[in-house]
Amino acid sequence: MYDFIAITVPSIFFSQPLNETNDEAWYGRLRTRQTDTSIYEDLVLSDSQSSAVCSQSSNWSQEEEALPLQEIQLADVNAAINIISQGQISPLRSRLGTDLVDVKERTLRYYKRKAEETCTALLDAIAPHQGQRLKRIVLPSSESSDDDLFNVVGEMYHNIKDANLKCQLLSLIVHRCSKAELLTKFPEITKHQIDKARRHAFVYGPGSDVQLKASSQHRERINYAKLQHAVEFFSDPSFNEISSYTTRNLKLDAGNTLVIPDIVRTMIHSNLIKLYNAYCTSINFEPLSKSTLYEVLNACSASKRKCLKGLDNIAVDGSSAFDSLSSLVDKLDEPQQWKKEMKEKLFNARLYLKTDYKLHIKREDECAFHCLQYALSDPKSSLLGVTCDHEHNQNCSRCYIFCEAVTEIREVITKTPSEEQEVFLQDLEMSITQVEDWRSHIVRTVNQDDGRIDVLHDLKNNEVLVILDWAMKYLPQMYREKMKDFFGQKGVHWHVCVAVFKDQNGSLVHKTFTHIMDYVKQDFFAVLSLLEHTLVTIKQHMPNITEAYLRSDNAGCYHCGQIWLSIPSLSERTGITVKRYD
Predict the structure, then answer these.
(1) 154: exposed, middle or buried (C-beta count within 10 Å: 0-12, 13-18, 19+)?
(2) Under DSSP, is residue 165 helix (H, G, I), strand (E, B) or coil?
(3) Which residues are CB-contacts of 370 (< 8 A; sequence separation ≥ 6)?
(4) Which has the least CB within 10 A, 83, 172, 431, 538?
């Protein structure tokens, strides 16, 4: 609905009939009459007198003083946009209060889009169905220039085959519109190419000619020194055993395959990592993270000990002794808190002997439990002992934790009734003896390993190290086995001799000699016969070998006087002199 304004018009404007159609003549007469000053003043006076009847006065008079502008609210702006666009444009989220130079690219694109939509709607409201024609008249022709640039770049992009040159061309226009608009105008490009072009424009500048060479990059996301430190610890012989009759294929980076003996890891990964972290803490070394250490152990693959048969008797008896002590603690009439503390001490003592006790043993140490010379010396014979140059005045808390637990248990047992006291003390002394034997066995094992390492380090080209051991008995197996064949089976005996020597290049290599027998008694005579056959075979294949070192466990067939007395004659028959037997 329109508002009508009542205006009093002087009669001088209509001195001619109103039906005159010649506009130019009418305006000419109007200019002539305006030259008459008196008439013009009367016109102004009469007009000012009659302006009181106007229902609405104009605010655009240049003669009136300009009123101060009020701040436009966001709701007023959205209301105006809604009226102009007839509800086709979404409301403005906010008014821009930051300088255009400081705003982000995404924000600038948003306000640019809203301004373009509003301007287009306003032009369509002024000139219905001719807004675009009016826009080309009023606004500069930037859109046409952008379209021309897009057309030229698109044609060149389609004809060029070089990927780097395409990226340079695309970097000229990637910042002129959004990614969706680029995908619409150039359907053949991808989002990855747009991101690559924007990175090129940001780093080198739009359209910069940069020769990018494709080179392979190897990322090293792990500290090499820490990795080497962890691998050396995990490869320690204390946690690994070499299998005598199985091999593993090791694939090198060059593509070659190297056949190596199979490695059996004697400790689970979680305990090995805990032990490594404790070791790093003691030497103030920052290790790798736990997840990385697990990845290292998985990469350095090794077989796990699954067969729990034929284990070391001394180690099994020592571990069982701790179980006996825990059962003994439960039988004592003491508070639960005390029993819990004793069991925790026994558990820590057993874990210490199974894991890192062997790492603390040294040739000379101020702790009596860690000193090899002191532990292996016989106090009753000076010929079987070595005098240490230092005093053993250092006490290891982890070594003495077992002694403390046993002392407390003995004190409690002495307070029990006499009929139970004797039985408890007997069980306690037996368990202590088995644990001490296990500790002594670990000390001897460390000493024997040091001797083996010394032999391998000083091994000459004419020398060989022979390691002897009886393997597990192999039980015959059939696909379909009757009941009478299953019971009363006798296993097949395996004896393994591993010969370690140096080749022509000075590298350590080994050969394995396996003897399989149906019925044999595992005594000194069988060992001497198998050892003689092994040395003869070594002499036939390697005539340069003249000396040998023997190494075996402490089984009765090896650790006996008959073996030692037969070694001189064995050396004469085989032509290989046995220099030492560990």
Answers:
(1) middle
(2) helix
(3) 360, 361, 362, 396, 399
(4) 83
